Amino acid sequence: QVQLVESGGGLVQPGGSLKLSCVASGVLGPFYTMAWFRQSPGKQRDLVASITIGGRTVYTDSVKGRFTISRTDAENAVYLQMNSLKPEDTAVYYCNAFGGGSPYWGRGTQVTVSS
After folding, report:
1. Between the N and C ends of the chain, which has fewer C-beta atoms within 10 Å?
2. Residues 6+ apart with CB under 8 A from 49
3. Are 90 and 21 in contact (CB under 8 A)?
4. Cβ(68)–Cβ(80) below 8 Å
5. Would you say residue 75 has pLDDT above 90?
6. pLDDT (mean) for 56-62
7. For residues 36 and 45, is the Cβ–Cβ distance under 8 A?
8. CB atoms < 10 A from the CB of 105, how many?
9. Cα-flanking dihedrals φ and ψ of residue 13, to 5°?
10. How are the residues of the chain apportioned to helix, strand and coil, as percentages rounded to the nearest 5?
11. Per-residue confidence (pLDDT) for residue 29, from 0 to 100
């Protein structure tokens, strides 16, 4: 059974940094695409960043230049380095993985940006 487990969330002041990690277990090989989504209360879950097995990345406009997504296929892991955090980045961040069938989701990790 495939499981995605996120870690690295927490409380940080505006301008600070956090690094999220997501490790997949129960898989036979690397996922074609791994991604991070986020969801704030009362809002839909939106894509933050994605990365393909070939290293192609996509970022939502609001995080370009501040966030960096990376992956380690040997460990079936994806990371999100978040710098210059803003209060509007506050959300639950979800790991997502797609390998050709139904996508897999983690349970999420809370990121709160507040002074």
Report:
1. N
2. 35, 36, 57, 58, 59, 60, 63, 67, 69, 80
3. no
4. yes
5. no
6. 98
7. no
8. 14
9. -80, 155
10. 10, 50, 40
11. 83
